[in-house]
Amino acid sequence: MLNKIKRITRKNTPRWVVLSLDLLLSAFSFGLAFFITEALSFEKTNAASYLFPLSLLLIFRLIAFIATKSYTGIIRYTSTQDAVRIFFAVAISTIAILLAEVTIYAYLDTHFIKPAIIIIDAFILIFFLTSFRISFKLLYNQYAPFNNGDNKKELIIYGAGEAGIIVKRSFEQNSSYGRKVIAFIDDNPKLQGKSAEGVNIYPPEVDFNTLTADRNNLIVILAINNISTFRKKRIIETCLASNIEIKTIPPVSSWIDGKFSVQSIKPVRIEDLLEREPIELSTKNIRKDLKDQVILITGAAGSIGSEIVRQCIFFKPKIIILLDQAETPLYEMQNELNGENNIKIIVGDVCNESRMEQVFAHYQPSYVFHAAAYKHVPLMEEHPYEAINTNVFGTQNLANLSAKYGVKKFVFVSTDKAVNPTNIMGASKRIAEIFIQSLNAKLRLESDSHTMFVTTRFGNVLGSNGSVIPLFKKQIEAGGPVTVTHPEITRFFMTIPEACQLVLEAGVMGKGGEIYIFDMGESVKIVDLARKMIRLSGFEEGKDIKIKFTGLRPGEKLKEELLNDKENTIGTHNPKIMVAKVPDYNYLETNELISDLYKQKDILKNRMLVKTMKHIVPEYISNNSVYEELDKKFIDS
Ligand SMILES: NC(=O)c1ccc[n+]([C@@H]2O[C@H](COP(=O)([O-])OP(=O)(O)OC[C@H]3O[C@@H](n4cnc5c(N)ncnc54)[C@H](O)[C@@H]3O)[C@@H](O)[C@H]2O)c1
C-alpha cells in the first residue's frame, strides 16, 4: 500500500487533469466574482442569465490555457515561469471577453456580462490558479521526501548564493533523490539570519552540533564557487570533525550547457584538503624566456614531465620535444595533444648516448627539462644498477650533451629524497645533483659553454603515478584495508600543477648552479591522510574500512627533509622558492668518482655499486635496508 502511494506521488499529474482543474477553478472564480458584485450591487440580477456568459467565458479561458500551455508545467516544480504563463492566459482571455462584451453592448445595447465581474474574476482566477499550484508544491515538498523510506537524507547547503539556490531547487525538482534542504550556511553577514526560499540562512560560526543534532544521514553540500582554499579546508575539516558527510558541486564553468545537475555533485577529494593557495606565477618572465624556443622535456609521459609539457604549451614555444622510453604513455600524450602542431614525440632512452646525441644534433634544443627518472624507493633498493643507470648516467649524458650543443638552460627535476638519502633512489638523485652542480661550476670557470644548470628539489606531488593517494583510493574502493607503513610516517605534499609551475619559474630565474627548493607547507601524517580519505568516501574507519600498518619499506624514511645539515637557504623574489646553499663539489673529482661507478655498473655487483654511492655521498645512510651493513663497515673502517 505504502509503495502504491509512493508510486502515485512520484507520478506527474496528467495534463488533462490539470486543465480540467483550471477550468473548474475558472468557473468557481467566475461564480465568486458574480456573487461579490451582486452583494455590492443594489440591482437584482438573475443568476440563471449568467449561465450562457459562463460557458462562453470558459471557452475563452480554455483557448487561452491551450494557447499559452499554462497547464503543461509539472505542478510540484511550479516556478515563476508558470506564474507568468498563468498571468498571460488570464490576461489574454480577459481582454478577449471584454472586447466581446463591448461589441455586444455596441450592437445590442445590453451587457451580456458586467465588465466589473470580468475584471474581479480575472484577479480571483490568477490568485486561485497560482495558489493551487504553490500549495500543491509546498505539500509535496513537505511530505514527498519522507515517502522514500530508503532515502531519508537531509541537506545543509553551504552557500546561499545563486549556486546554493540552484542546488536547492535541483533537489526539489528531483524528489527521487529524497533530500530535504534544512539549512543554508553563508559567510555573507547580509544574508545571515534571513531565509531563502523558506530555508533559514545561518552564519558559518553556527554550532554544527546544534544544527545537526538528532539528524541522521545529514549531508553538507559545498555550493560556493569563489572560495579561498583556506576557507574550503576549514569547512571540510569542521564537517569531518563532526562526522558529517560533505560533498561539493563542480565549478560553474564545467556545468553542461550552463545547467546544474544533481548527479554532478561529488564527494570532496583529499586533494581539496591538501591544496594550498594558488601560486602567483610571473608568467611574463617565463613567456619571455620560453616563447619561440625549442624545449626538450624528458620523462614527458610521466606525472611531472607531462604537466611541464602542458604548462609549456601555454608559453608558445617553437617546438616541444616529448621524450620518454615508455611507449604507451607517450602515445596517450600524443593523443591528448593531438591539436597542437608544435609537438614532437620521441621514444628514446636518456641513457643511450648516440640516440640522445642524434636528438640534440637534430633539434638543437635551447631548454631541457629533465624529469625522466626511476623514482620508486623500494623497487630501486632492489635494482641499484637501474637507479644508477637512469638517474645518474642518464642525467650525466643529457647534461654533457646540453653543454656540447649549447643549450641555454638545463633544469633538473630532483626530489627531497636526495637530501640525507636513506635509499638508493635518493642517493642516485643526489649524485646527479652533485654532477650537475660541479659541471656548471667547471663550465663557468672555463667559460667555454653558456649552458646554465639548475636543479629543483621538492617533496611528493599529489596523485602522481604510483603515489599514496591513488593507492589509498583503490584500497578504499576495494573495501580496505588501507595500508600505511608506519603510524608516525609524514610527507610533504603539493599538487602536480603547483610543483611544475615552480619548476618553470625556478628554471627561468636560475643563473646556473642553484638548487631551488620549494615551500612545501606543513608535512602531513600519512595515517591522518588515510583516515580523512576513508571519511570523505563516506565510510567509518575501523568499522567499514580498516587501516593496516605494514612496517617501513626498504629505504623508507619516517620524515623527508628538503635540506641536509650542511645546507641552508636564501630567499628569491618568489616566497615559495628558495635557493639551497650547498657545499661546492670539484668537477674532476666528481667525474672520477662517477666514472668509477660507471666502470662497475656492468659487473652488476649491487654491494659494490652501493658502496661506491656511499663514498660519493657520505651522508647516504641506508635505512631498513640490506645495505645498512655497509654503513657499519664504513663507519668501522
Ligand atoms: N612524483 C612525485 O611525487 C615527485 C616528487 C618530487 C620529485 N619527483 C621527481 O620527479 C621526477 C619524475 O617523477 P614522476 O612522478 O613524473 O615519475 P613518473 O614515473 O611518472 O615519470 C618518470 C618518467 O620517466 C620515464 N623514464 C624513466 N627512465 C627513462 C629513461 N631511461 N629514458 C627515458 N625516459 C625514462 C618514465 O617512462 C616515466 O614516464 C623524478 O625524478 C622524481 O624523483 C617526483
Secondary structure topology:
Blueprint: H1 2-10, H2 15-40, H3 51-68, H4 80-108, H5 115-147, E1 153-158, H6 162-173, E2 179-185, E3 195-196, E4 199-202, H7 208-212, E5 218-222, H8 229-241, E6 245-248, E7 266-267, H9 270-274, H10 283-290, E8 294-298, H11 303-313, E9 319-324, H12 327-336, E10 343-347, H13 353-363, E11 367-370, H14 377-382, H15 384-404, E12 409-415, H16 424-446, E13 452-458, E14 460-461, H17 468-477, E15 482-484, E16 490-491, E17 493-494, H18 496-509, E18 515-518, E19 524-525, H19 526-536, E20 547-549, E21 568-571, E22 577-581, H20 587-601, H21 606-616, H22 628-636
Helix pairs in contact: 2-3, 2-5, 3-4, 4-5, 10-18, 11-18, 13-15, 15-16, 15-20, 16-20, 16-21, 20-21
The structure holds nicotinamide-adenine-dinucleotide.
Low-confidence stretches: 145-150
Order of strands across the biggest sheet?
Answer: 10-9-8-11-12-13-18-22-21
CATH architecture of the largest domain: 3-Layer(aba) Sandwich
Q: Indicate how many domains the architecture comprises.
A: 3
How helix-rich are the residues, as a percent range?
A: 40-55%
Q: Which topology of the largest domain does CATH recognise?
A: Rossmann fold
- N- to C-terminal separation? 87 Å
CATH top level label of the largest domain: Alpha Beta
- Rg over C-alpha atoms, rounded to the nearest angstrom: 36 Å
| Number of helices, where a helix is a run of at least 4 consecutive DSSP H or I residues | 22
* Ligands: nicotinamide-adenine-dinucleotide
Shape: elongated
* Percentage of residues in DSSP E strands: 5-15%
Oligomer: single chain
Provide the residue-averaged pLDDT: 86
The counted number of beta strands is: 22
CATH superfamily placement of the largest domain: NAD(P)-binding Rossmann-like Domain
Protein structure class? alpha/beta
